[in-house]
Design a protein that fits this description.
This protein has 494 residues and is an all-alpha fold. It contains 24 helices and no strands. The two termini are 37 Å apart.
Length: 494
């Protein structure tokens, strides 16, 4: 007999979420930093199966409906999957061409170690504002800064936290950023009005983060642990270091500034690095290609290996050997596997109606400005956990909460700001979210290891709620300030 479709209850809908948290906790406890090497993917698959089984048995949802929702979710992430592959290729080609080693050498000579963390954060913020892309910033400048931090004896999780904090500040505040444009357009707020209004929460969060990185840098730096001079000598002995190699990142940033599509930009960046590799590192390419001299065969194999496979260079320095090792496109496969399983889970949760049941329950108690902002913040975090996709989280958080803001007479700039304060910046802190896995891949640090040190990303959602609680710059739709206390619902509501 065909079951009649019923709306899922909150009690049943929350079961897959709780189960996922338990399974991921077990995986992390058992596998630690290797949690992404199959364990997390299996947890997501099992949880997806439980969610699908409950929705089909209890609520009459057909498998065709769930399969369609999964396919739609995976299709929405297809662009991200291609970007993962290109970022893996850029990591390999920028390293073998000497671009990253050149940036590391110059950075070690210019940046003072005691202020390295705060400087790294500011550099990434500036680059990300200019490019509008946190992913590109971390995959290029971020990788070089990781090497500089490692050379100066800083723990890799501190450096990764500073890099990500700066990159996501720029991603959030740039008019070129996809997430910024998406949040503004979904909330139906003018782009530059949205950016200006975000400054009230973003600037305080960033300033506090900079203070923390400044103090941490002064406390953590120990000249006895620094290896900068040894690594500079080793890099210069293994790579041809030249300022001409900086043309490659300049080309990349110029393409971004001219709003060339992301996939085209990444492809051309990879291509320019391949050309630089053949010009500046011919002996290294020949070595990777398995030849003694750079003939056609060695050149072709060397370029293909740098783009697609793992490379290991013997620099004569064990520390540097691990620093310059790359994995190419092949290194992105675990990330892609994780994203696909996360998309399956998110698709089933949305297609079954369980996601809607949870969010409707959470919205019932929203009767104040603080409640509306808090609901938006928690929605952004929740959707990032459930869907595994930053862009979908922004859309869902805006669509879910815009009715509450309209009912309370609050300007939608508050909605778009709260969405960015949560959905945009928190995504990178979640191990199975596309942002979390890609930054873990390019920076070489597990998400759960760097997450506690991404202070800007942690402070942003808290600052959004605090500003609402203080009733600072909370505007009505008619431009006047809204009281932050409870507002009664109007009698006639559609």
């Amino acid at each position: 007999m065909e079951k009649t479709r019923k709306e899922p209850s909150f009690a049943v809908s929350i079961i897959p979420i709780v189960l996922l948290a338990v399974l991921l906790g077990i995986v992390i406890m058992l596998k630690g930093a290797d949690a992404l090497d199959g364990g997390s993917q299996l947890a997501l698959i099992l949880t997806t199966a439980v969610a699908a089984g409950l929705s089909m048995l209890l609520y009459g949802v057909s498998w065709e409906q769930l399969e369609g929702a999964i396919a739609k979710n995976i299709f929405s992430s297809s662009g991200s999957i291609l970007i993962f592959l290109f970022i893996g290729a850029i990591a390999g080609t920028w390293m073998i061409s000497g671009v990253v080693p050149t940036l590391i050498c110059y950075g070690l000579q210019i940046l003072h170690p005691s202020v390295f963390l705060v400087t790294a954060c500011i550099i990434c913020a500036v680059v990300s504002v200019v490019t509008g892309s946190s992913w590109t910033t971390c995959a290029t400048i971020g990788v070089a800064l990781m090497g500089i931090g490692y050379s100066n004896g800083f723990p890799e999780w501190w450096t990764a936290g500073a890099v990500i904090s700066g990159a996501y500040f720029g991603d959030k505040m740039s008019a070129l950023s996809d997430t910024t444009v998406l949040a503004a357009s979904t909330a139906k707020v003018p782009l530059f009005a949205h950016i200006r209004y975000m400054m009230y929460t973003t600037v305080p969060s960033f300033v506090v983060a900079l203070v923390i990185y400044t103090v941490a840098g002064l406390c953590l730096y120990d000249s006895s642990n620094a290896m900068s001079s040894e690594l500079i000598v080793a890099l210069q002995g293994s790579f041809n270091i030249s300022p001409w190699l900086l043309i490659v990142p300049l080309i990349t940033f110029a393409l971004i500034a001219f709003k060339v599509p992301a996939l085209v930009t990444l492809f051309l960046s990879m291509l320019s690095a391949c050309v630089a590799m053949l010009i500046f590192q011919p002996s290294l390419v020949a070595q990777i290609g398995g030849g003694d001299v750079l003939d056609f065969r060695a050149a072709a194999l060397g370029v293909m290996t740098a783009c697609c496979n793992s490379t290991a260079i013997d620099t004569g320095n064990e520390v540097l050997n691990s620093l310059v090792a790359t994995r190419g496109m092949g290194g992105a496969m675990n990330v892609i596997w994780l994203v696909l399983t996360a998309m399956c889970f998110g698709g089933v949760m949305v297609g079954s109606g369980m996601m809607g049941a949870i969010t409707r329950t959470l919205l019932k108690g929203v009767k104040s400005v603080v409640g509306a902002v808090s609901s938006t913040v928690f929605s952004g975090i929740f959707f990032n956990c459930c869907t595994g996709d930053q862009f979908m989280s922004i859309i869902l958080a805006c669509d879910l909460n815009k009715g509450s803001f309209d009912r309370l007479g609050v300007d939608r700039r508050v909605l778009s700001r709260a969405t960015e304060d949560s959905a945009t910046v928190v995504s990178v802190l979640i191990p199975w979210n596309t942002c979390g896995v890609v930054q873990s891949m390019v920076l070489g640090v597990p998400t759960l290891l760097f997450a506690p040190f991404c202070f800007f990303n942690i402070l942003s959602p808290l600052m959004s709620i605090l500003i609402a609680k203080l009733n600072y710059k909370i505007l009505r739709t008619d431009g006047v300030t809204v009281p932050s206390e409870v507002v009664d619902e109007p009698e006639n509501v559609d």
